[in-house]
């Protein structure tokens, strides 16, 4: 029976959070343009760092492959 009461508790919490999120999503006057710009800037930097890490990783593998072949 304890399992059943926990599932009812979680279902109630999920329903309440959904209702609150719906109200917050409909709020007017929130300017999110600065956040969107910041996320775009960070995503660009993270992408460049990721490309650099992958280039180093596969560059080392290629170097070892060429060194082993010769």
TrEMBL record:
The keyword Membrane applies. Residues 1-27 form the signal peptide. The chain crosses the membrane at residues 37-60. It comes from the Bacteria. It holds the Pfam family Phage_Coat_B. Keywords: Membrane, Signal, Transmembrane, Transmembrane helix. This is Methyltransferase. The lineage of its organism: Bacteria, Pseudomonadati, Pseudomonadota, Gammaproteobacteria, Lysobacterales.
